[in-house]
Amino acid sequence: MPDDETRILQPPPTAPADARPDGLRQPADAERARSNRGWLMVVGLVLAALNLRPAITSLGAMMEEVRDGLGMSGSVAGLLTSAPAVCFAVFGVAAPRLARRWGPSAVVCAGMVAIATGVLARSFTGGTAGFLMASVLALAGIAVSNILMPVIVKSRFPDRVGQMTGVYSMGLALGTTLAAAVTVPAAGLAGGDWRIGLGLWAVLALVAVAIWLPAAAGRRNASERSGGGADRRTTGNITRSPTAWALACFFGLQATAAYITMGWMPQIFRDAGVSASTAGLLLAVIMGLGVPLSYVLPRIAAKMRSQSLLSLVLGACGLTGYAGLYLAPAAGSWVWAVLLGVSNCAFPLVLTLIGMRARSGAGVVRLSAFAQSAGYLISIPGPLLVGVLYQHSGGWGQPLALMAGLMVPQVLFGMLAGRDRVVEEELTTARP
């Protein structure tokens, strides 16, 4: 009895802070696990973004060597620079449907596999046809990932959409810059072999695959399932929204400028007497400015009621840069590269606008798919026309005039897309 009494009088053992009444572990461990998964997803987001441009930019840096090695004409090279826009429009349409079936994370992981396979395969091809087919495979992987990255951000980081959009945009710009700066020197270390310069970027894609595999294999959470595809009844017919069309045109015209820059800018500098390595560095400057600006610009845009002024400023920089390339391409090359780098940041601006011009997650998904797919369709002729004009005119006067001419409607559509409104309200008003 004394023993029992002693036991009764003794204070109960202090329960650990994370104990639960049922004896199971408290959410501390689960919270740490969620935190670890969150950081892993941030790493995956950055790695995916890093892989969405090197397949394109690395080719632009070595276009002359690829043309000589494969016996490619200027018109075919122009077709090749238009291929990203075609693939992004064609394959991007399928992204929401694939996401509903397999989940956004699984589709992004498959996209990274396609990028790695295509980039590696085209480094071993012996002809133009095989090079084009392998490039299409890589571009298909980029296309579906392009559409679904905003969905991943919205579903995985619902309370940090602006911040993570900045991180994603910064990673994309960094990947573009690295490919522009590293491809030519890497090929030089391999004896000038363009195949090594292009093929090394498959390694980066394989690293991304390793990070995305756990997310792809795991069960989708409720937010990702809802983000995989939008309910048409929630947003109505997106094609009835003037803002959606303004975004699509703005996206398409800025994509035209971006892919002309990535595909042809090194050649413009080289034809002006700049060395191949310096031309690659100039392209790296153009793309590299997007690294800090892609992080800052979305935050600035999010604090403004209207983003129309930002579109005007970016367009003015682009027009000045094109004028400089026409008047003094070599003498002022670094200045023009800086101005065009600022202008090229229309891409993070339009990504931010896509998130701001829809009120619901379902609206963001449909607006992203529509604006990007329609926008890439709009951008298809631009790089091809530049190649044709360059080949038939023998200089860059006419292509630069085309680039400057396209910048004017880009500014106008950007100002329309920057107005303070959401597509849901427009669709409600448009209903019969």
Mean pLDDT across all amino acids: 83
The shape is globular
Report the count of strand segments.
Answer: 0
Order of helices and strands: HHHHHHHHHHHHHHHHHHHHHHH
What does this entry look like structurally?
With 432 residues, this protein is mainly alpha-helical. The protein has helices at 2-9, 27-50, 54-61, 63-70, 74-92, 95-102, 104-122, 128-156, 161-189, 194-199, 201-217, 222-227, 232-235, 242-271, 276-288, 290-302, 308-327, 333-343, 346-356, 361-379, 381-393, 397-417, 423-430. Helix 5 packs antiparallel against helix 14 (242-271) and helix 14 packs antiparallel against helix 15 (276-288). The longest helix is centred in the middle third of the chain and has 30 residues, at 242-271. It is globular, with a radius of gyration of 24 Å.
Give the structure's gist in a few sentences.
Helices cover 80% and strands 0% of the residues. It has 23 helices and no strands.
